[in-house]
Amino acid sequence: MLALAGCGLAHFGGGAVVPPEEAIRITPGDGARAVRAAARLAVTVPDGRLERVRVTRTEDGGEAVPVAGRLTAHGRDWRPREPRLMLGARYAVEAVAVDGRGRRVARHTTFTTVVPRHRFIGYFTPEHRSTVGTGMIVSFSFTRPITDRAAVERAIRVTARPHTEIAAHWFGADRLDFRPRRYWRPGTEVTVDLRLRDVRGAADAYGIQRKKVRFSIGRSQVSTVDAVDHTLTVRREGRPPAVLPVSTGAAGHETYNGRMVVMERLEMTRMNGSTVGFGGEYDISDVPHALRLTSSGTFLHGNYWATPGTFGAFNTSHGCIGLRDVRGGGERTAAGWFYGQSLVGDVVEVVNSRGHRVAPDNGLGGWNLSWPEWLKGSALS
Length: 381
What we know:
By secondary structure, the protein is mainly β. 6% of the residues lie in helices and 43% in strands.
């Protein structure tokens, strides 16, 4: 689906060039916070028709629940069946529209509703019952700054079967991550036990969550990007390494060095330089096979606009890692193959780049801290 990214415009309705946010209008707006319960949730298209709308709601940082809704007879509007929004929830909206010529445009937006006064919630990753890669880090983002970090840290217990040493690390007042000393063993079952209800995290602010979240560790896959050799080497247990040609960040926009973790998988996304400080240098509406590696906008993605000779020979991007692809995304391309082989939680390490080392709080970058450094970030150490 379409999401703002860091590395388009859609032809829609009679050949006109329309930005995706105009072709598909979603309210509340993308990234809106503290949205009131009475706010209007709507998806509309001024021209063409909506082909598919999927809305999910995550309450208390738990499992995503579908939100029921319906399309109007002409297909230009979607409305939820329940008029009021749930408080203390995160909503995600995915919409695909098509014009009279069969051309599609997609959008993906999120917003969060207001949390009742004197309460806090920890939104977390990964999702309940998910299967993730061996580099997954359990990460909490709190809706209020936490001043009593020790109390909150004690109220969250992360355990694994088989037994694994796991420790916590605070990044500022509103983020708490958990990771093992080394990558998870494949097949490990992880349980996150949240006992935050009535725990005092700050002055007159108490937690409301009490639940258990479980996820599984899948096969091991660790990939290494060499910015000098222009290669991506994929190592998966029991298989010989696969080497793919890539293009990384050009001079002045070098790709981060260091270990990054796949945060999300997007079959198609928009990459707009204006969202990450590059002005109007690029705006590509249909980047295929995109794997987000950092919060700041580093992706490993398919690239159909560069000449084939670019991959394996030149670094040309604004910091992303590009694999050869075709418009719309091809299953048999290098990008399509790697996307199909990847899980959220897989590790991608970049070496020999002239860029800075990725910050440990940029995405799930905690693997760039040594174990002693990681342990110092605990409020209980």
